[in-house]
Amino acid sequence: MSNYHPLTEQEAIGIARSVPGIFGPEGELSCREIGDGNLNLVFHISQASTGASLIVKQALPYAKVVGESWPLSLDRARIESEALILEERFAPGLVPKVYHSDNDMALTVMEDLSSHVIMRQGLIEGGVYPLFAEHISDFLARTLFFTSDLGMNQQEKKLLTRSFVNPDLCKITEDLIFDHPYTNADTNSFDSHLQADAERLWSDQELHFEVARLREKFLTQAQALLHGDLHTGSIFITEQSTKVIDPEFAYFGPIGFDIGAVFANLLLHYASQEHWSADEASRKARRQYLTDTIGDIWHGFERKFRELWNEHGTDRIARTAEYQDDYMLRLLQDAAGFAGAKAVRRIVGLAHVADIDKIPDADVRAKAQRLALTIGTTLIKRNRQLTSIEEIIHIADSASRA
Ligand code: SR1
Ligand code: MG
User: Fold this and answer.
1) Residue 1: its pLDDT value, please?
2) 190, 273, 380, 388: which could form a disulfide with 340 (CB 3.0–4.6 Å)?
């Protein structure tokens, strides 16, 4: 029989106290529930006398953003802690340390990253993160290469996929990213000024054809172990440090999905500059910073993934001339398509992004929303014709000038 129940703050303190080597024996511990995501409880536990702190994260048996009517498997907490441990092995220093996990209670005790900010908030406040492209391209190249059939023993990979069968969380993505925005679904949520834009999404057959292809990839292509929800709210950041958190959507899927998630969230922020930049010159400069970052991420990822492949590739036939170029091109095209789908869902589907939703003026917000939709739908429709990251950036820049 499972012991599972949602923790009280006192229970969270008791669990924190039992983790060795963090807190001093004497001083009191205090606890705050700080979860502001869509799914979980997050307790921040600290000791004033030593300055020590940690996080206890516990999954709820339903999606907090909707309520108890949307049940969700608690197994996602095991998946999250096992994914964090693997990510630390392949990309050391780029995820929080896991101190303890309890699958019955669906909880993970981990490093407190309060010295960092959530990247989405940091960007909204105008933050510039000069090492981000270097760090995230490392994270992407290393975690995705070493869990793919190119970098992992292929029988071990098949066995590992069993630990990351994640049907409930995949279903969220399948519905909210690859289905509901393209039909008049109850879960959709958008400003009334977007009614005609949403209806165009619902009837655009050319768009539906490409979304169906992307959806098929998400459903069937077990290319590597993905983070599965790599938006800027899943990244803690400072100017010097990047930590990827929250891999509860982890599963074996198409590599371009994680890369596309990062691009999409930078592009949503790009669109939100309709409001967050004070004037045209600073908007241009901010957008240049964002597109430079996207370019640096792709070029860094591509170079590092190819180096890993050349040095550590486990597959003989994958060394065939031109196969690597063909593979990398498909990753770029997938990343573009998935980025587009992820941008569209944040405008018309369930669960938006603060970058855009916090724009107070409805007309300015509508301009940003329509820009995000234009970039998103263009990336989806053109994904299979794209041959360079510069073309992706060009799509965003031309849409913003239109
Ligand atoms: C019901 S969960 C809604 C969204 O929150 C998560 O962060 C994922 O992006 C999911 O699609
Ligand atoms: Mg999350």
Assistant:
1) 57
2) 380
95: DSSP letter: S
Task: Report yes or no: 309 and 151 within 8 Å, Cβ to Cβ.
Answer: yes
Q: Which two tokens stand for residue 63?
A: 């999606």
Contacts of residue 394, Cβ cutoff 8 Å, sequence gap at least 6: none
What does the alpha-carbon distance between residue 222 and residue 225 come to, in Å, rounded to a whole number?
A: 8
For 110-120, how does the pLDDT look when each residue is reduced to its tens digit (9 = 90+)? 999 999 999 99
Instruction: Please state the CATH superfamily assignment of the domain spanning residues 117-401 in this structure.
Output: Aminoglycoside phosphotransferase (APH), C-terminal lobe (3.90.1200.10)
**Global ipTM:** 0.98
Matching residue, tokens 């908007």 = 283
Q: How far is the C-alpha of 112 from the C-alpha of 92, rounded, in Å?
A: 17
Pocket probe mutation, ligand 1, options 229, 344, 352, max atoms within 8 Å of Cβ: 229
What is the whole-number distance in angstroms between the Cα of residue 315 and the centre of ligand 1?
35
CA of 38 to the centre of ligand 1 (A): 6
CB 190 within 8 Å of CB 333 = no
Give the chain's end-to-end CA distance (angstroms, integer): 60
Domain boundaries, the chain: 9-111, 117-401
pLDDT tier, 331 (very low <50, low <70, confident <90, very high otherwise): very high
Rg (CA), the chain: 21
Superfamily per CATH, domain 9-111: Phosphorylase Kinase; domain 1 (3.30.200.20)
Provide the pLDDT for residue 87: 98
Question: Given pLDDT bands bounded at 50, 70 and 90, which one contains residue 39?
Answer: confident
pTM of the full predicted structure?
A: 0.97
| CA atoms of 250 and 166, how far apart (whole Å) | 7
Does the beta carbon of 38 lie inside 6 Å of ligand 1? Answer: yes
pLDDT in tens, 160-198: 999 999 999 999 999 999 999 999 999 999 999 999 999
Give the mean model confidence (pLDDT) for residues 131-140: 98
* Residue whose CA is at the smallest distance from ligand 1 atom 5: 38
pLDDT(37) > 80: no
User: Crossing angle of helices 362-382/195-203, nearest 10°?
Assistant: 10
> Biggest alpha carbon distance in the chain?
66
CB 171 less than 6 A from any atom of ligand 1: no
| Residue 177 alpha carbon, nearest atom of ligand 1 | 11
